[in-house]
């Protein structure tokens, strides 16, 4: 069974990187367990038929009263015709960058620890039905304002669903962002050994100090002050054990503004002063 690379097989220029893409998908015969390499997160708005998706450790099935939000990855899916002998869905693909920009713009970015799942079930309603009538792939191609229009449609459905499902959906959307490219983590970890205060790092993250602390504790499962101090002192110990440097040579480089505070923190953590190493 061949692997279908989606959405690339639907693009006229598969090599072109896109942040948003709409595709109207129809078929008139059942397809059982297609191997799919989904390279973008995707809404699958089901209008006719049934869909089942198999993931690594679970599966989900929906009918035309429901739709799916699917995480990118390698999945198996089965698409079955409805009683009218047709399968029809609208697929709306979005990049991680587009999602990150949206969450930064509209949410507080808090992601509590929870088991990550690769799908989110959406219950179709009158608003979604009206929305889908305006979401035609023909509208968003070869148009002077195609990108701007599609961005507005993406924000529209995201905001509507956030209003409908609240934190449950927000936490799911946060889980779709790869940890290695999380803007929050990039800022935090690039300032581990700076002498910036917590409120200054929070400012760089476009957050208040209280929001920053909540977000940090959610991401790292520890308070930010303790995490930063442990990281900095462990590096200091490694540098001092090298034998070529003294405490006075390194305290500024690992985030302390004065030698006295560094020496006290070091002794409290390791039981010995930095001069004893």
TrEMBL record:
Keywords: DNA-binding, Transcription, Transcription regulation
Residue stretches making up the HTH araC/xylS-type domain: 182-277
Stored PROSITE patterns: HTH_ARAC_FAMILY_2 (PS01124)
Keyword Chloroplast set for record: no
UniProt keyword Transcription regulation, yes or no: yes
Coiled-coil annotated residue ranges, if any: none
InterPro entries documented for this protein: ExsA-like_N (IPR054015), Homeodomain-like_sf (IPR009057), HTH_AraC (IPR018060)
Protein name (Swiss-Prot/TrEMBL): Helix-turn-helix domain-containing protein
